[in-house]
């Protein structure tokens, strides 16, 4: 089990960003300020769907203290943004499609002045009927949000003849599953500081998960070269996918350039809820059939995703959901179809798990029901149907064979939590019911086939004599700086104070892609595996010349290059890194570029590397209140070596509790295109009270022999399988099937009288 | 200039400002005094990111107005440690009690308040004491370990 203990002690390290975080000394980008800076505010649409007939800003412009007011007329370049397909207006011209659409923005000497000026901007709307149901949005008579209609994207995957195959099935389960509009709820809302520099460049201090992508998008909007923009994007107070797309950056940049003065923007929580991304709510209809022995024969899935008003990453999210809708099983006949639909319900986009969470909830719930129909133990049922390592991937593509799936399955089978399924303790009160459930998943890493996914890195000896690693990653809490530090210390045998780690600044790092899709750790591993021998060899050659010692007798270590002892005399220092830097007279740098590993088969979005995971959970249901309390969790994760155990444990614990919110309490409710949950008082994020006291993490660290890809990302996989495990536990405890998340409490409530009666009957029946 | 004078002792030093009587302590700390260690998140007293101590008791700085804390002694995260790190800060570092770190100042101020009142809290007492602080990253595991390291009992 991965715990803080002997096994991990040599790698259990305080994070390099820790001291500044626990003392409050760390300046987040929203903590920054400059003398004389302006405060920016954005006017968001009052209507979820309307034509904009007129925008009048004259009164706002006359307010003393207002330095700049902008509308669509002030956008010099492309008045659109969007990572894949730029279709979201920076500032709306003639139409709004959700309540977060921006219409105007103001920069003023104080926040209050900016807010007052905003209130004086007059907008004439002509409402259009609100499209708030993706299925209705698909009807021909529904108003169209975009020129191309209301369909953002369709997917389809097929193998075999599922329609015919169902005829031969012994048991068929049909289920419809609904998942919530989960909010990232990062504690730091969007914002930053936008500084027009004396040399005409613009510096953007604002959170993102892909600095170079922000630079490209802002360049397009501002109509200036990318090189004229510097993006500083770390540190970040949480993201979980939510800050991957542009948010306030266009407004800060436009205002700062118009006013010629630095501008600060920082969303209030309400602004963040209103404008920010959410997880795609999905309706997933599944039909799955087995033969008399319990073997999966045919599987159909129909996914409808509510993508909201604009594209952002809605299409790739649907691709991912499609890929993950048949689970890690051998099924000869499969048909999966997905559609991602534009509505006036906010904007759905990237979120930890990336569409896998929804699909895995549905497909694992199907497995639970089928096992029961077959009269089988649900875990044995999965074992019977498990894919083999050499089987093609879920879209028929070649994937890297791995024994991780079976090991994750075995971990649950052997777990203490799962063993309690058959020997349940007696409940203290008749209305308290206990149950145990589990679920299994494999989850793709990287962006997938056909999507540019550049990686790389730079490793150098700086003029100051530091070993410096530079990547275009961002630190939003996941601990990438700690992981890089550990990777470098292991390779060079050096100390932390020999290192310099540079991330999150487009002026200082090479383009190594985004900090998303559980890809950074793998990219760093591959890059350092290429670069470390190159730099190390040059350092040793340099030291060899300086000290007159053969290179074979030298090695890198703490502070510099050491002479290996040829007897018991101990090693001695041949040259410090600083001396080497001085002798070499300048920076010694090595850079590499490569793409994240993808499947060789041309299946768009198809993954090559997968992380396998399973979770077992014990839950207690109070049938008087419908509350579900988690007592114990056992997570098994097969992701290769745990480079950074503190980070690894933290990622799984954190993802698990986030998934608990997805399952039990979290939903950004909307009515007629308006948010009803506007802040953290009624959008219910789990607190420390909701944590299961018993938590076990089994890290399965073996990799296939000769594996060149190293540790797999673990940022997402802890969040993908908990919901169906809880659903199984609920079934176990109270005999009810859950098909909607968050689990509606009212479905679990039973009258007290019926329970007392049930207890008597139950006693007779068993 | 605002006619209202606000005086307080902030992290041991006397502070005097001319502010609106209804100005929030959160704004005074972050914008007027530059103490950005106190964080801003929900601004309605739910998340605990802005917790500071007012006369030794934890308060959400977003809910306290200038006139309500006039004359008070305020301690923020910047004023917690005297010299080296406070033992709570050490424990958070050692046990991984934070990730993005944005909830951390408020969380640590809540832990400090909890331990001041209950030096050896049970798990239930820890959970009660920290239920006003939301952390979105850690799943609270590292936080529980950190508090237990500071003196909490693992038993109920």
Automatic annotation (TrEMBL), chain A:
Keywords, comma-separated and alphabetical: Oxidoreductase
This enzyme's EC code(s): 1.17.1.4
First-tier enzyme category under EC: oxidoreductase
Entry-linked PANTHER family: XANTHINE DEHYDROGENASE, XANTHINE DEHYDROGENASE SUBUNIT D-RELATED
Superkingdom, natural source: Bacteria
GO terms for MF: iron ion binding; xanthine dehydrogenase activity
Aldehyde oxidase/xanthine dehydrogenase a/b hammerhead domain location: 23-129
Gene: pucD
Protein name: Xanthine dehydrogenase subunit D
From TrEMBL, chain B:
Pathway named in the protein's UniProt entry: Alkaloid degradation; nicotine degradation
SUPFAM superfamilies found in the cross-reference section: 2Fe-2S ferredoxin-like, CO dehydrogenase ISP C-domain like
Keyword Iron carried by entry: yes
Keywords per UniProt: 2Fe-2S, Iron, Iron-sulfur, Metal-binding, Oxidoreductase
UniProt key word Oxidoreductase: yes
Ranges where the 2Fe-2S ferredoxin-type domain occurs: 4-80
Name by which UniProt lists this protein: (2Fe-2S)-binding protein
InterPro entries: 2Fe-2S-bd (IPR002888), 2Fe-2S-bd_dom_sf (IPR036884), 2Fe-2S_ferredoxin-like_sf (IPR036010), 2Fe-2S_ferredoxin-type (IPR001041), 2Fe2S_fd_BS (IPR006058), Beta-grasp_dom_sf (IPR012675), Diverse_Oxidoreductases (IPR051452)
Listed GO MF terms: 2 iron, 2 sulfur cluster binding; metal ion binding; oxidoreductase activity
Domain of life: Bacteria
PROSITE patterns the UniProt entry points to: 2FE2S_FER_1, 2FE2S_FER_2
Organism encoding this protein: Paenibacillus soyae
């Amino acid at each position: 089990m991965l715990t803080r203990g002997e096994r991990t002690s040599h790698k259990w390290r305080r994070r390099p960003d820790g001291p500044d975080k626990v003392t409050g000394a760390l300046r987040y980008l929203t903590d920054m300020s400059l003398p004389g800076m302006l405060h920016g505010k954005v006017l968001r649409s009052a209507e979820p769907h309307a034509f904009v007939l007129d925008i009048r800003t004259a009164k706002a412009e006359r307010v003393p203290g207002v330095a700049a007011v902008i509308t669509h007329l002030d956008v010099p370049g492309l008045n659109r943004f969007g990572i894949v397909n730029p279709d979201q207006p920076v500032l709306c011209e003639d139409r709004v499609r959700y309540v977060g659409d921006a219409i105007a923005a103001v920069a003023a000497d104080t926040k209050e002045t900016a807010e007052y000026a905003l209130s004086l901007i007059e907008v004439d709307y002509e409402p259009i009927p609100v499209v708030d149901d993706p299925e209705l949005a698909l009807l021909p008579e529904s108003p169209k949000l975009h020129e191309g209609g209301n369909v953002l994207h369709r997917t389809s995957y097929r193998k075999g003849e599922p329609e015919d195959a169902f005829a031969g099935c012994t048991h068929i389960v049909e289920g419809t599953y609904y998942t919530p509009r989960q909010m990232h709820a990062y504690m730091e809302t969007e914002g930053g500081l936008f500084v027009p520099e004396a040399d005409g460049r613009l510096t953007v201090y604002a959170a993102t998960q892909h600095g170079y992508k922000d630079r490209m998008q802002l360049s397009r909007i501002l109509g200036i070269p990318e090189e004229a923009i510097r993006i500083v994007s770390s540190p970040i107070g949480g993201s979980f996918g939510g800050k991957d797309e542009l948010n306030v950056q266009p407004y800060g940049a436009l205002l700062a350039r118009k006013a010629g003065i630095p501008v600060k923007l920082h969303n209030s929580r309400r602004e963040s809820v209103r404008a920010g991304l959410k997880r795609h709510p999905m309706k997933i209809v599944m039909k799955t059939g087995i033969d008399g022995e319990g073997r999966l024969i045919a599987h159909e899935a129909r996914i409808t995703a509510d993508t909201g008003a604009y594209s952002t990453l809605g299409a790739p999210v649907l691709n991912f959901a499609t890929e993950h809708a048949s689970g890690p099983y051998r099924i000869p006949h499969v048909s999966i179809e997905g559609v991602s639909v534009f509505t006036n319900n906010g904007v759905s986009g990237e979120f930890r798990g990336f569409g896998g969470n929804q699909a895995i909830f549905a497909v694992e719930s199907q497995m639970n029901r089928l096992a029961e129909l077959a009269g089988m133990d649900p875990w044995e049922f999965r074992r019977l149907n498990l894919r083999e390592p050499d089987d093609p991937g879920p879209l028929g593509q070649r994937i890297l064979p791995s024994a991780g799936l079976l090991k994750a399955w075995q971990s649950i089978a052997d777990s203490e939590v799962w063993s309690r399924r058959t020997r349940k303790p007696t409940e203290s009160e008749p209305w308290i019911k206990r149950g145990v459930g589990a679920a299994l998943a494999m989850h793709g890493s990287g962006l997938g086939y056909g999507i540019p996914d550049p990686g790389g890195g730079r490793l150098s000896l700086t003029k100051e004599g530091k070993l410096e690693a530079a990547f275009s990653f961002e630190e939003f809490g996941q601990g990438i700086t700690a992981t890089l530090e550990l990777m470098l210390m292991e390779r060079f045998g050096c100390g932390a104070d020999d290192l310099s780690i540079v991330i999150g600044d487009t002026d200082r790092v090479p383009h190594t892609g985004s900090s998303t899709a559980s890809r950074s750790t793998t990219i760093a591993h591959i890059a350092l595996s290429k670069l470390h021998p190159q730099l190390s060899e040059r350092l040793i050659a340099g030291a060899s010349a300086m000290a007159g010692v053969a290179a074979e007798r030298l090695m890198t270590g703490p502070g510099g290059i050491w002479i290996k002892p040829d007897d018991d005399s101990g090693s001695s220092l041949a040259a410090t890194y600083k001396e080497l830097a001085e002798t070499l007279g300048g920076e010694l740098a090595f850079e590499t570029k490569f793409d994240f590993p993808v499947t060789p088969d041309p299946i768009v979005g198809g993954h090559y590397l997968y992380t396998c995971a399973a979770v077992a959970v014990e839950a207690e249901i109070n049938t008087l209140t419908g509350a579900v309390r988690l007592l114990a969790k056992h997570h098994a994760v097969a992701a290769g070596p745990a480079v950074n155990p503190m980070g690894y444990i933290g990622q799984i614990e954190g993802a698990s509790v986030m998934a608990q919110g997805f399952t039990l309490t979290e939903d950004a409710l909307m009515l007629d295109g308006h948010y009803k949950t506007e802040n953290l008082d009624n959008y219910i994020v789990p607190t420390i009270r909701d944590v299961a006291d018993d938590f076990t993490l089994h890290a399965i660290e073996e990799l296939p022999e000769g594996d060149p890809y190293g540790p797999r990302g673990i940022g997402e996989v802890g969040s993908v399988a908990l919901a169906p495990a809880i659903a199984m536990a609920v079934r176990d405890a109270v005999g009810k099937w859950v098909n909607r998340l968050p689990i509606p409490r009212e479905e679990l409530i039973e009258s007290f009288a019926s329970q007392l009666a049930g207890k008597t009957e139950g006693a007779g029946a068993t | 200039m605002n006619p209202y004078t606000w005086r307080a002792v902030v992290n041991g030093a006397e502070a005097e400002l001319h502010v609106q009587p209804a100005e929030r302590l959160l704004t005074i700390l972050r914008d007027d005094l530059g103490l950005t260690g106190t964080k801003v998140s929900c601004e309605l007293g739910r998340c605990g990111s802005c917790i500071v101590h007012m006369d030794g008791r934890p308060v959400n700085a977003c809910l306290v107005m200038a006139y309500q804390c006039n004359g008070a002694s305020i301690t923020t995260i910047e004023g917690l440690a005297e010299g080296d790190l406070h033992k709570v800060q050490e424990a958070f570092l050692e046990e991984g009690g934070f990730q993005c770190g944005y909830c951390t100042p408020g969380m640590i101020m809540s832990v400090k308040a909890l331990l001041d009142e209950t030096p050896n809290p049970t798990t239930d007492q820890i959970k009660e004491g920290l239920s006003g602080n939301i952390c979105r990253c850690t799943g609270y595991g590292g936080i529980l370990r950190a508090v237990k390291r500071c003196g909490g009992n693992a038993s109920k």
